Amino acid sequence: MTECPGCGEPLDPADVFCENCGTSLVAAPPVPAPAAGADSALPPAAGPVCVHCGAGLVGGDGFCEACGMAQPSPRDHVERSLAGGAGVSDRGVRHHRNEDSFTLAATSLPDGRPAVVAVVCDGVSSASRPDEASQTAADAAGEALLTALEHGEAAEPAMRGAIASAAAAVAALAADGTAPEPGHNSPACTVVSAVAAAGVVTVGWVGDSRAYWIPDDRTDAEPYRLTEDDSWATGMIAAGLMTEAEAYADARAHAITGWLGADADEVVPHTVAFTPHVPGVLLICTDGLWNYAEAATSLADLVRADARTDPLRAARALVAFAVAAGGHDNITVAVLPVQPDPASGWVDTVLDLPVIKPTVPPMPSFPPAVPTEQG
């Protein structure tokens, strides 16, 4: 075992960056040797300093004139942490930019109780400016949620309103005067958002970004996926036109049927709310993570046992797993710790997932609405 040069954390030989501090473990290419007779000292800094070789020769195109390496974008790897949760987003290995975005914020309800808001968005790569779409949606939904909660609106209607605001903001990008990219649709993205307040968890989504409930003690309570994808396969199964095996064997299986953007049909957000009766974490993520561990039990095996007390480290570990597994897509994860509130009250469902009573509609049935997950 080796140690991280940044923080001393023990590392696996296969690690590409430290899950504890985020230090890259991929060796930078050597700086080209100066030509014979040339001054061996680096020239005075003429621009930003290269993160790979240290030369101050980064041009306006984002490439270092000394070693030729591209400089990372601020969105290549983003981390945010606060008392009520943490989020990490990473470009991955194969994509040239990070088209995911997320918002994480804390506020207080009118009665003084704390509330944490998280929004995770995944830009649609076949659309124009997917990185702008995801950022726009995350910002709009996060701001709308915070405003609604602070004014005393209940979490579920606040969630639906926030997603509607995000949908309108993304749709507006198509009319901002920017020419669309050739062969691409209008800017578009998916969204999954969550509110954790007073022991109650509320989730809203459109698309195939997901939410999972992961209890601390997985021998006493099972982890569950809380969202149902807006996808071609899900639609075929729900309509009774195909069996699950047939639908997921089709090349169109994971094509999304719901998204935010000017080209979308009417956006109808899905919402679910429940009050867990055991401590745990709510995990919301893009498919850059769940494609490598789709089933809730498989994903739960990757969640650190101390996730509720150290959500940032847990989020880092999940992103590191996805990068090491191939990093074929951008990866974004938000982890929200949840401690049961005895005053909230709960009732068992068929999945032993407590639901709020009696002021909001009951939680949709999961399963059979959610297809059996493929591990």
Account of the protein in words:
This protein is of the alpha+beta class and 375 residues long. It has two domains: 1-71, no CATH class; 77-338, 4-Layer Sandwich (Phosphatase 2c, domain 1). It contains seven helices and 14 strands. α1 runs antiparallel to α2. The radius of gyration is 22 Å and the shape is globular. The protein starts with a strand and ends in a 37-residue tail after the last strand. Residues 27-32, 38-42 and 346-375 have low confidence and may be disordered.
List the helices and strands and how they pair.
Elements: E1 2-3, E2 10-11, E3 77-82, E4 85-90, E5 100-108, E6 114-123, H1 130-150, H2 155-173, E7 188-197, E8 200-206, E9 210-215, E10 224-225, H3 232-238, H4 244-249, E11 260-261, E12 270-274, E13 280-285, H5 287-290, H6 296-300, H7 311-324, E14 331-338
Antiparallel strand pairs: 1-2, 3-4, 4-14, 5-6, 6-7, 7-8, 7-11, 8-12, 9-10, 9-13, 13-14
Helix pairs in contact: 1-2
Core attributes:
375 residues, disordered C terminus, six-stranded antiparallel β-sheet, alpha+beta, single chain, 2 domains, Phosphatase 2c, domain 1
Tell how many strands the DSSP assignment holds.
14
Based on CA atoms alone, the radius of gyration comes out at: 22 Å
Structural class, from helix and strand content?
alpha+beta
* Mean pLDDT value: 83
Instruction: Trace the largest sheet across and list its strands.
Output: 3-4-14-13-9-10
Named CATH topology of the largest domain: Phosphatase 2c, domain 1
Strand/helix succession:
EEEEEEHHEEEEHHEEEHHHE
The poorly predicted ranges are 27-32, 38-42, 346-375
